[in-house]
Amino acid sequence: MQLASSFRYGSPMLRSDSPLSDDQIRRIAPSIFAEGKHQSRSERFTYIPTIDVLKGLRNEGFQPFMVCQTRVHDQDKREFTKHMIRMRHADEITGEEANEIILLNSHDGTSSYQMLAGAFRFVCQNGMVAGDTVGEVRVPHKGDIVQNVINGAFDVLDGFDLIREQKDGMRAAKLTRDEQHAFARSAVALRYDPTDANTPAPITGSQLLNVRRFEDHRDDLWTVFNRVQENMTKGGLHGRSRTGRAMSTRPVVGIDQNVKLNRALWMLADAMRQMKA
What we know:
The chain is α+β, with helices and mostly antiparallel strands. It folds into 2 domains: about 150 residues, no CATH class; about 100 residues, no CATH class. Helices cover about 35% and strands about 20% of the residues. It contains 8 helices and 9 strands. The strands form 2 sheets. Strands 1, 2, 3, 4, 5, 6 and 7 form a 7-stranded antiparallel sheet that branches. Strands 8-9 form a two-stranded antiparallel ribbon. The chain is globular. The N terminus is likely disordered.
């Protein structure tokens, strides 16, 4: 799956423990409030500001908890550029985790409305993308956009029952030490091309198993998966470049790369869940 956006390192981003207000969103992602489409768009491009779509989703019980907008070199596009909102429905918040719907859009033609299923784990403040369990929903810039996006959001919401089953299965699966290291080595191969002998991975699988907090001292697949995912996507692991220079891994913040890696990690974990069943 190829997303139509690429959020670069350092993109403006805000995540909150409570629903974001319009004023908070506007400071980070003004393109959500764009007053019209970019001049490059034709008459066939139906303009509906993302804030109108968000208002419709709020009326249906969805609330925004994270917003992000791409940086642009051309300031004329700042009010129209690609943006992302991660939302939660009131029914999808539990004590430890929340299922999230990821909404992506732009007003310059670089992205249709897109929705993906995600999950947020409070203890590590980290967001995930739920593999290919729930299919991506795309809504083109034409027709009744607001209602079509709302319908798409509920389609994603309906898929969370299967996601819960997968998570429960991962929690029930206990991994031996060898199995944990096999999972971590496979995760390294997802991030760094194992066939490129000239560019070895700068880190090892063992580093991805590092425990960052007391709650993660468990051997179930769900916890191991979260440790590996957090260490890989948040970066900060010390390693060696291909020239032997000491370096630290950077966070995986580009939206294409982040979604691709997160989906692959989820699918890897789900495959191990099925093997352990």
